[in-house]
Structures
1.
Amino acid sequence: MSSTGQTADVSVKNSSPSAAASMVAAPPAAFEFLDLKAQFATIREEVINAVTAVMESQQFILGREVRLFEEEIGKAIGSRHAIGCASGSDALLLAMMALGIGPEDEVITTPFTFVATAGSIARLGAKPVFVDIAPDTFNIDPSRLEAALTARTKAILPVHLFGLPAAMDSILDLAKAKGMAVIEDAAQAIGASYSGRPVGTLGTFGCFSFFPSKNLGGAGDGGLITTDDPALAERLRLLRVHGSSSKYHHSILGTNSRLDALQAAVLRVKLRHLTEWTRARQHRAERYRRLFRESGLSEQMVVTPHAPRDSVHVYNQFSIRVRERDRLREYMRQHGIPTEIYYPVPLHLQPAFSYLGHKRGDFPQAELASLEVLALPVCPELKDSHQEDVVNTVAHFFRQRN
Ligand SMILES: *Cc1c(COP(=O)(O)O)cnc(C)c1O
């Protein structure tokens, strides 16, 4: 399962350079990187009942389920308004449409993220302006923001990558001083907080995704935008239904981007379990740190994710940094241990963004991270023994090389 691809199983196989290049047969993974079947088994009845109720109502577009879900998740996130939409990518797109961002505008963001972050900026005809990441957090480096500002900068789009909030104080201060909007890409970070404030409530907008591999994943695609601004919330509600407040009357140009009632029904069930699942992820992360300490590997060999005191990390991914990442990954694969790479190519080096004219060396920290990151399984359903296997296999790899 991958947050980089839309058909999860296929994307995992195709995104693995070692799997494609290697002719050596490996045993099938001993367990799942993300075990959604095991998760479903724990909520099966609740989900089936919720889905059945929607089928019986035959109300699939917006309506009661979506309204209730928006109320419940708005409360859970701590935002006044929560607007469901068709995907996390659309959440970003709609947020920027609500701000009127388009050609001639620039939006500052990170090159080390899923393609949708910068893709949605470009899709509106605006220019994504990349700022390199801080190596310890993988998030946009606040000390480099000011140098990227121009008279055309309309917004900053930080990503809370892997579930760790970006350095929001610096970002918000700068945005305020320059009169810019802040759009939080919180697709991987539902439930995370920064200085006691939940992500999605810090900027002008928070954008969330319910892609199945996210911490709150639906039974398909879905997304959400949060805002405290009632006028912007109203605009978003119009934009997602072709700018229509009454049937066939269109005040502004929008699009079709709604959250399905079926998705809302499933998400309402899963939202009730989110706190417990998040705690399980955090527990797994702490256990990884302890197991790596006990393994005797030096902290230089395996760098575990940074956990700043002022933030709550929700570990959509537990990404370590290692040298010889590709060899380690292949060794893990040979031993039946599933891992993933988020992200193997930073956005400024993707062919889709070649028109921006960037070259290797422009964002060295993002480039280095793309060579060194390795995501280890951290889902709530992971067994203790499997987690020990993960750490032992990493330890074996480094021991046999020294
Ligand atoms: C998943 C993701 C998105 C897009 O969400 P979709 O629901 O898949 O469209 C955007 N940004 C980041 C950082 C993501 O991880």
Note: The mean pLDDT is 93.
2.
Amino acid sequence: MSEQKKYGFTTTILHSDRQKPIEHGSVHKPIHTSVTFGYQDARELAAVFQGKKPGYRYGRQGNPTVSALEEKITRMEGGLSTICFSTGMAAIGAIVQGLLRAGDHVVSSAFLFGNTNSMWQTVDGQGIAVSFVDATDVKHVEAALTPATRIVFVETIANPRTQVADLARIGKLCQERGIIYVVDNTMTTPYLFLPKEVGASLVVNALTKAIGGHGNALGGSLTDTGIYDWGKFPNIYDSYKKYPVEQWGMAQLRAKALRDFGGSLAPEAAHHLAVGAETMALRMERECANALAVATMLESDSRVAAVHYPGLPSHPQHRLATDLFRAYGSLFSFELKEGIDCFDYLNRLKLAIPASNLGDTRTLVIPVAHTIFYEMGPERRASMGIAESLIRVSIGIEEADDLLDDFSQALAGG
Ligand SMILES: *Cc1c(COP(=O)(O)O)cnc(C)c1O
């Protein structure tokens, strides 16, 4: 595979491992389970520790199987480099551990994955201030900025209410102000959207979801797009300034967050995720088409009160989503009319499984307010637009007709 030619998304992932020689002509990168890496020349070991020579030392900081996955994600995102973590949340937590200090300020979208919301609330009590804003309009983000703002954090399509952030305008604002712009790309994946194109500094992917895609391994990643000038960032420790300036951020994140907090991805999980990633584009095509079909059917039914899916013309950010994304994702949420109990509805579904993952090959459904958003309480839920009857649907790769039949027979049974 020549480096000169620019191949398509799936071709690139399929042939990524062969960019470097693989042991025994293996076509997959093998699973390296060794925790430590030995050197015949002790001086070489020292050179690796001092960052003067590339190489592995101890599995917490890096592993060849994990590096092969990092390389794939870097290629998918069109970035400079990637660090993998044990989960998506470990990747998001790494931003706090690796880049923020007491007195710093963060502006985050108010429309967030539940655990990310909970994490920012915790951080807000630890000497770092966090402001939550409606990120569907850049003006709310701009109004919240202070001289201490170091990071703006948004999700592309918010999980679970599907609000679309004003991604391009927020990117421009962050670039003008020299603020790190973190975009969680989990719901769109690098197949539907490249955050780099709207000026993102760091991209988060929960690999557990669509990239791995089969619900059989947890993982997360941070990718440096190369857009942010780390030379302007006040929180870089001197130890990492020995590297070229474009590597400062990731060098510090790998040491201060991955090494010191230890949320490392296991090589076995990295292998599952890398194999899953090979079919991500095919799965996304099918899932996005299925999601649009089922969301459209539900919206036209008189027993459904609301459907939230950026692919529907009724969605407040439908135009924005059409401009930004290749398709509208595999996740939508909906509310039933009063009098139809959401638990009874879910129990009538024969195919869709009540479960909390998303981006799986199988269709999964969950009553949001009673499960993943239960802990935050009714007030915060209301402020995030989460109705008590909201059902989140993560559409899988089943045949569309089977899903349409299942979701409509469950309405008829009511
Ligand atoms: C699931 C998810 C995460 C966290 O990923 P885990 O691997 O479950 O820790 C982060 N952001 C979004 C948008 C998610 O959907």
Note: The chain has a mean pLDDT of 96.
